[in-house]
Amino acid sequence: MDQPAIDLSLRLLLNLKPWRNAATWHIAFSGGLDSTVLLHLLATLAKTHSLPALSAIHVHHGLQAVADAWPQHCQSICDALGVPLKIIRVQVKPGASLERAARDARYDAFRAATQVNEMLLTAQHRDDQAETLLFRLLRGAGVRGLSGMPQQRALGRGHLLRPLLDVTRAELEAYAVEHQLRWIEDPSNQDRQFSRNYLRHQVFPVLAERWPQAVATMARSAAHLSEAQELLDELAQIDLATANSTSDFDWLGVPSLALAALAQRSAARQRNALSHWLATRTRLPDSDHWSGWENLRDAVGDARPVWRLADGELHRGGGRIWWLSGGWLRGFSSEVDWPDPALPLQLPDNGVLSINGAIPVGPLHVRYRTGGEVMNLPDRGHRDMKRLLNERGVPGFVRGRLPLLYRGEQLLAVAGLPGLNGSATDGWVLQWVPPSEDQGLS
User: Fold this and answer.
1) What residue numbers does the annotated binding site cover?
2) 3-227, what's its fold?
3) In what order do the strands lie in the sheet with 256-258?
4) Pairing state of beta strands 428-433 and 422-423?
5) Which of 321, 317, 216, 308 is nearest to 277 (CA)?
6) Residue 379's Cα: distance from chain center in Å?
7) Quick one: which H or E segment has residue 308?
8) What are 211-227's pLDDT values in tens digits?
9) What is the per-residue pLDDT across 343-377, written as a single tens digit (0 to 9) for each?
10) What is the CA radius of gyration of the chain?
């Protein structure tokens, strides 16, 4: 093996050093040049170094007739290298961008296949990083987007690693030729209607004629922007630490932030902190849609503003902003009978109710607010439910979900609110466990 090949192997090994104690390294194996070189490098290194168990994953999108032969090709390569292969067939959802839909389907498969203490290794290289930077720049991305592809990030229950980001496409091609590797040439890679292919075949050759080091310098810029993003993330954590105060309604399990702590920051710091907080919960809005945050923040009086995002909604209430998604945005039954109050009651799409202590005389049933409810309280007489909820600062989004325990037309208890959730005289308390993520809330 000559010097360039040795250098490439050692660079790969050095980039993967922090992850040598993982249980498994999965290689995302399309059968193309880049992933074929990565697979060959790792299989060769495994003969002389103690590495985690290697396996390959091939995702079959079924978008081209010619692709039907690719799983067999990948299987033959893996058999020759002694690496087990898992073939996953996916359905690509139709949409405006076939590129994005295929990528989403592919990474959904990778996410499901990557378990605790396992790593998925992909073969993106320095040229890919430069293309990503220019592509995102043309789409008006901010610092986070322009920082390019991270070398590592969480994926599923494990991590995704990109150990070849400091390697050029030319180096991979030289390695493949030297070792007489066979790889797939995807016809779609020549289709210039796809934005990345257009950049690769039309734009970068022109840039390289004028600036031969364009790819290297753009990749370096992505690294600088990645460092800048790290600083912004640190600033976001500082700002969020003050907004992550406790609330009387933390028991709901709904993520929330204190609005006043955010509102005292500059507009740019507000957006930075919220972007950091929302990044794990939803696709982030583009610049034109941040007016939704301003409307939410600046609403006055008893307004109940909502900022709708791709994967959920931000609500405002009780001096806080609340992130609602999944089951919190779905409907639920309006009335449920409770035939045996000695047993917990599963509420359709709304958690579980139980009674601790002496069981009230029945028959009992559960309703939800429709307006005009009145409750008889010891020493206070009949009180309007709306006023009682206002006194306790109950956020608007949960008011319609609070289970109300009735006996006939008599309102006995309101779940979740101390002082209203049972009878101290008769010795019982109504307990409500709101829906968890496993029960349909995300």
Assistant:
1) 30-35
2) Rossmann fold (3.40.50)
3) 256-258, 320-324, 312-317, 306-309
4) antiparallel
5) 321
6) 50
7) strand 306-309
8) 999 999 999 999 999 99
9) 999 888 888 999 999 888 879 999 998 888 898 88
10) 28
Q: Give the residue numbers of the binding site for ATP.
A: 30-35
Residue 439 has pLDDT above 50, yes or no: no
27, 72 in Cβ contact below 8 A? no
Tokens of 241: 């630490």
Lookup result for tokens 């500059």: 266
How many Cα atoms occupy the beta-carbon half-sphere of 409 within 13 Å? 2
Distance (Å, whole) CA 358 – CA 4? 79
Q: How far apart are CA 158 and CA 154, in angstroms?
A: 6
In the block, tokens 């753009």 appear at 218
Give the right CATH number for 244-324 from 2.60.40.2250, 3.10.450.50, 1.20.59.20, 1.10.3260.10: 1.20.59.20
Q: What is the pTM of this model?
A: 0.78
Residue 224's φ and ψ, nearest 5 degrees, are -60, -45
Amino acid at 64: Q
Dmax over Cα atoms in the chain, in whole Å? 91
The first and second tokens of residue 425, run together, are: 């005289």
Contact criterion met (CB below 8 Å) for 328 and 321? no
Which position has the token pair 């449920």? Answer: 336
